[in-house]
Amino acid sequence: NVGTAQCESPPRETRTLDVIRDVGENRSELGIVFRSKYNRKVLSKLLAERDLEFHPIIECSANVYLWKQHPLAGNESISLKELEPYPGLFFEQGSESSSYFAEEILIERDYPRIIRATDRASMLNLMVGLNGYTLCSGIICEELNGTDFITVPFREDKHNQNTTMEIGYIRRKGAPLSEISEILLEEIRKYLNNAGQRIINPD
Length: 203
Description:
The protein has 6 helices and 10 strands. The chain is α+β, with helices and mostly antiparallel strands and 203 residues long. The strands form 3 sheets. A 5-stranded antiparallel sheet has the order 2-1-3-10-4, sandwiched between helices. A 3-stranded antiparallel sheet has the order 8-5-9. The protein has a two-stranded parallel sheet with strand order 6-7.
């Protein structure tokens, strides 16, 4: 999911387009977003219009995020074909947003069943109640989501290729970051490194 670091308040979680607006309008010093082959062109255009720049932190491929008692939870990998009987869960990005601002990787695929949620709690409840799933980086924060959920690598086929997502932060070009934002970035890198991710932009 996407969060922003406020200049004088704690980090908050919000929609992708709002993150870009917050940083562009100086309400936030930095924002955490992801970039992929699918959204790169649109994201780059929006950032350039607002004089913002993207700094990648890690690269990762798609994983399936689901309840640990989901019928597919024991698989070593999961294909899109195997997911067809179950609803795909996606965060609602608002009426003015498009799939380019989605928080889920591989959003451009054709999903036969989709449910959109507006908050994390609803998403997790739908995973349990309906055996729903979402596609993500594979990084789970147990402090936020508990221990009842797992990720399984997404298995590509000739019609549904996996792709790389870059998770990183956006900031205003040339603007110095405050000490609290520097600390936040350092903690994010530490967390991702401890989760087994290779940091590609240590700054």
